[in-house]
Design goal:
mainly alpha
């Protein structure tokens, strides 16, 4: 039971999001690093993410049974009941909101609530089964963690938070396109209108390459606006260029699943490199 409750919270996804949260927080810190605020707001954000992921698993349990990648998830396999999962999600959400509200400024709480609603309501409940444009809502939700982290440290949402938001939206899009191409038959089996299912593989590759190009142009902006140093500029420029090369290599290949896997690996490495450099070279007054 405990293992199932842990699993439906999607811990690996939470860890990735907490990494971007940390990058956003570090970017906004001015002066001494507030370790107590960081730990408390990180915990609140993690609990909220776990709640949203659990609700997503409840909503998707029927289509999860149809896909090879997800059919063994606890709710899809029936090893845990929807009622128990809903209670778990409610507990996690209430705890996360309480911890974040008590520890972080209102701007961080507001950003967290918006990201939560986009993921659970707009993406999972409304758009995912209706339109390939659901990827945009999913990208907005995925871009919330660094904004929450930034607002927790800065006490407001300003240009720095906006830059993080748009960088993460543009990172999420090719990441999602790659997942759909890698698991195309799963999406078809579940009758989900993923971009690759509706518009085809080549269109999906084009969309991924265009998104990566937009990301590569946008990711150096924290340096341009004085938020990060030259090391970040070099890292972001190089990682964006390498990711674009990986994306372009998808056009001559017929093994779309393999290309999708390479794109996914590249996306995670790019995110890790950029946010590590962002946090490490943030400009201090």
């Amino acid at each position: 039971m405990l293992k199932d409750l842990y699993s439906i919270a999607k811990p690996r996804l939470i860890l990735l999001n907490l990494f971007t949260f940390t990058g956003g927080f570090a970017l906004a810190v001015r002066g001494t690093f507030p370790a107590g605020l960081f730990a408390a707001s990180l915990a609140g954000a993690a609990l909220g993410m776990a709640s949203g992921s659990t609700l997503n698993n409840i909503i998707d349990r029927d289509i999860d049974r149809l896909m090879a990648r997800t059919r063994l998830r606890p709710l899809a396999a029936g090893s845990i009941s929807p009622r128990a999962a809903l209670a778990w999600a409610g507990f996690l959400g209430a705890a996360g909101l309480l911890v974040l509200s008590l520890s972080a400024p209102p701007a961080a709480v507001a950003a967290g609530i918006v990201g939560y609603l986009f993921y659970v309501v707009v993406y999972s409940l409304w758009l995912k089964r209706r339109t390939p444009l659901a990827v945009l809502a999913g990208s907005v939700a995925g871009a919330a963690p660094p904004v929450v982290g930034y607002a927790a440290a800065a006490g407001q949402i300003d240009l720095g938070a906006a830059l993080l938001f748009f960088i993460l939206v543009l990172w999420q899009l090719p990441h999602f396109f790659a997942i759909a191409l890698r698991r195309l038959e799963d999406y078809r089996a579940a009758r989900l209108p993923a971009f690759a299912v509706v518009y085809g593989r080549r269109a999906s590759k084009i969309a991924a390459a265009v998104s990566v190009a937009a990301f590569a142009l946008t990711s150096p902006l924290p340096y341009a606006f004085g938020y990060a140093g030259r090391t970040y500029l070099a890292v972001s420029a190089l990682s964006g260029a390498v990711w674009l090369v990986v994306a372009l290599l998808g056009f001559p290949t017929r093994d779309d699943a393999r290309w999708g896997r390479r794109m996914l690996i590249a996306s995670v490495l790019v995110l890790a490199a950029d946010f590590t450099a962002l946090a490490a070279t943030a400009v201090r007054p």
